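Input chain follows. Return structure tokens only.
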Amino acid sequence: MSLHRPIRHCRDCGAAVVYRLPDDGDTRQRAVCPSCGCVHYENPLNVVGTIPVLPDGRVLLCLRAIEPRRGKWTLPAGFMELGETTAQGAERETDEEAGAHIALGPLFSVLNVPRVGQVHLFYQAQLLSEALNPGYETLEARFFAEHELPWDELAFRTVKETLVRFFADRRSGQFGVHCVDID
């Protein structure tokens, strides 16, 4: 299922666009405005988030209060905003969804989801306290040990793939950066 909706009108002048190869040598069909010549590029959205962990190894998950996947568990994450870095977006989303105070760590996973035009990036994060203040997008925020994780109730495959790799790396004592393609 693709979320792609074709561009119908030029964002610059409002004229109806046509899909064709641009005159600049591009090899992909693009939405081109026949009136003003503007070429409209469509790019994936970035989803940024964290894997917030307490010193005892428990991970923070949020129960979604919004669609998609309302009532399912997820890591705190959301769409990156213009004007922020991926790290800033991950910290903001962790605050907005869980009200958690963290020390952001290194990038942990990059998950390509071309089917929906998204790239998900998760950072490791140390929780600075157990105090939480979930926002309106979260029904509940809770800490889980690995054996307590609600694997069958996770909202997104990107979250599951990230958590599987996180706990495997934690057991091995060696953390890497993981790149995963999800069809």
